Amino acid sequence: SRARPGPGGAPAARAASLAPAMAMPSPLGRQATVAHATLPAPLAGRRAALQISTCSRHSGRSRRSPIARGALGPLRLALSGSFARAVSFTWRTGKWIVAGFVVVAWPVIEILALQTRLRRRRYRPRRIILVRHGESMGNVDSTIYSRTPDSLIQLTDRGLEQGRMAGEHLRKLIGDETARFFFSPYLRTRQTLMAILQAFKHRRVQLTSEPRLREQDFGNFQDPQGMKKVYKERQKFGRFYYRFPNGEAGTDVYDRVCDFWGTLYRYMDFPPHDERYVQNFVLVTHGLLMRFFCMCYFRWTVLEFDQVWNPSNCEIWVLEKTGGGRYRLAGTWDGSSCGPIKFGADKSQPLYPHMWEYAPAREMVPGTPGVLDDPLLAHLRVPGPGSIPAAEGGCDAPRAGEVGPCRAGRRPQRGRGE
């Protein structure tokens, strides 16, 4: 029969019989066991019941653990080992595959990139043509700048005729090839452009207004008497570095022209998909901009730039593409052939040979006797201590075909646009 619960809430007889046997080992040894056995009946009954329930849970786990450890344990170990071997094999194989791909694919990528660059250079325009505007009212009467903004100066009748003649010359040079015109937003350049386009009737041409091709800013309304004083001051300070009151310095114009060269390269090498291959770029601009344009590309020094004279009205300069996709200065186009560009003190000296070609850098061997006699290095002939430099920022470069020591002297004084 089932025993009746004792006062502590557990069967007294069963608690009394199981308490000593189920007691947990203790570091106090036998004394702890004896003390536990002599507990009062209510406490002993409760402790025995707690130990019975705890042992039941442990006994349940122990009955399931052999299956888990015996059956699933080796399977888990086998799976973990197979996975590790698979990962290791994949890693070793992947490294060899990647290395082989790099060894094989890298030269192919380089070859494709080289072919892309060569293709872009091959499809650059055959020519870059620079055209100065025709004769303007400011070229005839300099006082007009005191009452008319520089951007609104118009062409004379002679200037319009010069524009039409320039169009005929361009038509002979270009023929039936495609052309894209970039032009300054000034009124005299737009009038020159329209006069040039009369020679291209019934032909499709591309037109782009480019503010960076505008004339150097000489100030706002310019008083004639005040400008004479300004030009004398510029001659002393240096034409390339002098900043006009309320206007620009030559360095500012140089910077924006070089920036325009970057845009021009993007037009050449990355044309929009809907545009055709253009064989000629024509820039209708100003004389000073034509010189700065060549200075940026051909890497003329400041001394060389100062010796190049301003082109005449509607004078045409031609840059022709060479085999490597770069450009060479062919000279002045007169409708039948390319002539020389005005250079030197008397405007009759030829350009130095290196000024016709693209030259990214100039080389020298310091300490070599006579190394600075080369016109390439004329800009390095600096004055000695205590000497007074020339007006244009240093020693004059020798004349074409002439070598010698540094010669201090002043160039002929020039006016506006020269």
TrEMBL record:
It holds the Pfam family His_Phos_1. The keyword Cell division does not apply. CDD domains: HP_PGM_like. One of its GO terms (molecular function) is catalytic activity. The keyword Oxidoreductase does not apply. The active site is at H133, E215. This is Uncharacterized protein.
